[in-house]
Amino acid sequence: MNVVARHVVRTGTHEADQQGLAQWQAWAAAQGLTMYATPLPQGGFQVDLVAAAAPGMPAAPTAYAAPASAALVNPYAPPHAQGVAQMAPACCQGCGHPKPTKHLTFRQNIGLVVLRIPSTAEGYFGRSCASSYFWRMTGISALFGWWGVISFFYTLVTIPANVAQYVSSRGLPEE
Ligand SMILES: [Zn+2]
Question: What is the model's pTM?
Answer without folding.
Answer: 0.51
